[in-house]
Amino acid sequence: MTIEDAIEELEYQSGQHENIESERWKNGFLGQLRPYKGVLHEKNYHSIIQALKILAPELEKDFIDKRIIGAIWGICHFGRMWAIYPDGMLQRNELLNEQQTLQIDDWLIDISYAAFCLLEGTGPKEAFWNYDNKEQ
Fold it and tell me: Is residue 93 helix, strand or coil?
């Protein structure tokens, strides 16, 4: 995967890619939540982490392509707003069970922690420690 491929992956996962008719967009991390179809695709989580691993050197630079930051921010912000917060559309409408809510929260924690660590310069080993040490 190239840097551009990784950016494109994050754009699809965050619903920011211009090709809104693509299945990658519709079934991406945020696409799977709105409208919620009752299924969480774990592959989205793994795809986001893999894209972040490719983009690690980019996130450690002083100047970062805003498409990367926008996509990460969108995934984390809207993922929490829609799926985790009590007044979010999925919680308010009781569309997620407790296990699904915990799963999304866990994924968002890993994604946001990895991004934070890379932005802070702590490096990939720390950024992906939790992901790399999970039983997949």
Answer: coil
Render each residue's pLDDT in the chain as its tens digit; 136 residues: 999 999 999 999 999 999 888 889 999 999 999 999 999 999 999 999 999 999 999 999 999 999 999 999 999 999 999 999 999 999 999 999 999 999 999 999 999 999 999 999 999 999 999 999 986 5
How many domains does the structure of the chain reveal? 1
Q: What is the pTM of this model?
A: 0.95
Which token pair is 9?
């992956």
For 40, other C-beta atoms within 10 Å of its C-beta total 19
Q: Which residues neighbour 45 within 8 Å (Cβ) at sequence distance 6 or greater?
A: 29, 107, 110, 111
Q: Is 36 helix (H, G, I), strand (E, B) or coil?
A: strand
Using the structure block, give the residue that is written with the tokens 């592959």: 43
Domain that holds residue 113: 3-132
Which tokens go with 133? Answer: 């040490």
Judging by beta carbons within 10 Å of its beta carbon (0-12, 13-18, 19+), is residue 59 exposed, middle or buried?
A: buried
Phi, psi angles (nearest 5°) of residue 119? -65, -35
